[in-house]
Amino acid sequence: MVIIQSNQHIIAHRSNKHIVAQPEDANCQLSDLENCLVDLRLMKGQTQLNCHRIRNSVIVCGKVAGSATIRDSCSCIVVLDVAQLRFEGCARMCAFVSCSSDPVIERSDSMRFASFLQSLACADMTLRPICRVQDFSWLRRQHSPNWSLMDNPDVFQPLWQMLNTNNSNLDCALQYIGKL
């Protein structure tokens, strides 16, 4: 397990790591991660999250007061409570989200969404169900084929239980990527 302690919270160029950020008032940038379990739930006062080139990873955040942008990433599970969320150039992503506005996708496909899980929520979170996503690459009236609501989010329940007991195992967490 890698414990990150820095004011900038830049986590980059890691593979096969369990990364846990410590409580600090800062924003976070993740880039070039592969096969990682990233737990940012302890960070307080986070207003922004930027992710670039994340592959086969699980990212779990607490409350992000501002925006989160995830670019050029694939085969990831993302869990966050955020004001605004945008995916650009992503594929095979599974997002458990509470979002003040409709999440946005652009140049992305095979995106699945579900509401943020009560079991991972902190006391200060206002959970909002996800029912619609804006696809900026799909300009027709019909529903975009690039995203859907998750049929069976309960399949991930053992992952959430593992995260809540702080008994997180990288290999066990990454097996859920295969359920995408």
Unreliable segments of 5+ consecutive residues: none
The rounded distance between the terminal residues' Cα atoms is 24 Å
Q: What do we call the CATH topology?
A: Pectate Lyase C-like
CATH architectural type: 3 Solenoid
Strand content: over 45%
- The helix fraction, in percent, is under 10%
Radius of gyration of CA atoms, rounded to a whole number: 15 Å
Family: Belongs to the TBCC family.
Protein name: C-CAP/cofactor C-like domain-containing protein
Précis, in short:
Helix content is 7%, strand content 47%.
List the helices and strands and how they pair.
Elements: E1 2-4, E2 10-15, E3 18-21, E4 28-34, E5 37-40, E6 48-55, E7 58-71, E8 74-88, E9 91-99, E10 104-106, E11 109-115, E12 134-135, E13 147-149, H1 157-164, H2 170-174
Parallel strand pairs: 1-3, 2-4, 3-5, 4-6, 5-7, 6-7, 7-8, 8-9, 8-10, 9-11, 10-12, 11-13
Organism: Coemansia brasiliensis
Family: Belongs to the TBCC family.
Pfam family, one: TBCC
Features:
180 residues; mainly beta; Pectate Lyase C-like; 13-stranded parallel sheet; C-CAP/cofactor C-like domain-containing protein; C-CAP_CF_C-like; TBCC; Tubulin-bd_cofactor_C_dom
Written account of the structure:
This protein is mainly β and 180 residues long. It has one domain (2-165): Pectate Lyase C-like (3 Solenoid), CATH 2.160.20.70. The protein contains two helices and 13 strands. Strands 1, 2, 3, 4, 5, 6, 7, 8, 9, 10, 11, 12 and 13 form a 13-stranded parallel β-sheet that branches. It is globular and about 45 Å long. The mean pLDDT is 84.
